[in-house]
Amino acid sequence: MSSTELPGSIATAATPTTLPVRVAEGERIRSVTLPGLTLSVRSRPPAREGLAPALYVHGLGGSSQNWSALMPLLADVLDGEAVDLPGFGDSPPPDDGDYSVTGHARAVIRHLDAGARGPVHLFGNSMGGAVATRVAAVRPDLVRTLTLVSPALPEIRVQRTAVPTALLAVPGVTKLFARITRDWTAEQRTRGVLGLCYGDPARVTEEGLANAVHEMERRLQLPYFWDAMTRSARGIVDAYTLGGQHGLWRQAERVLAPTLLVYGGRDQLVSYRMAQKAARSFRDSRLLTLPDAGHVAMMEYPDTVATAFRELLVDQGELAADGHRVTDPGTDTGTES
């Protein structure tokens, strides 16, 4: 494994033909190279040594940047990293072209194994929630707690607003959509995505919109952009159809890690009605429902999600009720101020 790190407010961790990747103040981005796989990883320097490791996994069409609002709110209790899945953000496509949920889960596992960071507090949103569920089920040794924001788990009745996204999995649809929308500006595309993902798009700040438009412009320059979207969407649909022990709901039942579930009442991609089913399926779960949130609660209501996660740490004995971190068992006892 090799790693190259680029700090700064804007890091040029991109190919020469694309715009630079934007990195928030205090963040760093590095490239991790594994056999057949290169991953871009975003992080913040930990507030102090010895904090528990965390890994954040984005959803379909997203990137590690989706966690930039939440990560600093937990930087005093977690040593966090956010990964760009293969083909997304600044990570190039995997050599084997595997964009299935299992393929993405394998990439996460390989990253954790190579860095020897497990067990981690694992976060996942949307497709990343499905990926994180699979990781927690097949490699419980790597997962300390699991936090899922609108996880893409199979639904019997898909919402009508989610159908266009699902159609990306149909052969030929992506090329047709790309041709129909070829005259759309990056801002038009971005506003469309934000309108689909946010419960109230008015919550997006001017800076947030500018960063999202920049990222859209950058991605549209990538020759594999639509291929990664299409194959990953197909991977989600395929995962929904799997039965037996490989089915996502069956794997949810196998998760041993304490699990925080976050669902938005205005989510147009993952139905709010799935919250109770998820709460019943994960054996050690707690549920946070946000009536006004959409599909990306960690971006819309980061403070609320951070508070819920801290409460999970308190319940697990890793954080005292006064907010002080409890030293890991086996190393020392007491609290740190």
From TrEMBL:
<dbReference type="GO" id="GO:0046464">
    <property type="term" value="P:acylglycerol catabolic process"/>
</dbReference>
<dbReference type="InterPro" id="IPR000073">
    <property type="entry name" value="AB_hydrolase_1"/>
</dbReference>
<dbReference type="Pfam" id="PF00561">
    <property type="entry name" value="Abhydrolase_1"/>
</dbReference>
<feature type="domain" description="AB hydrolase-1">
    <location>
        <begin position="55"/>
        <end position="300"/>
    </location>
</feature>
<keyword id="KW-0378">Hydrolase</keyword>
<dbReference type="GO" id="GO:0047372">
    <property type="term" value="F:monoacylglycerol lipase activity"/>
</dbReference>
<dbReference type="InterPro" id="IPR050266">
    <property type="entry name" value="AB_hydrolase_sf"/>
</dbReference>
<dbReference type="InterPro" id="IPR029058">
    <property type="entry name" value="AB_hydrolase_fold"/>
</dbReference>
<dbReference type="GO" id="GO:0016020">
    <property type="term" value="C:membrane"/>
</dbReference>
<protein>
    <submittedName>
        <fullName>Alpha/beta hydrolase</fullName>
    </submittedName>
</protein>
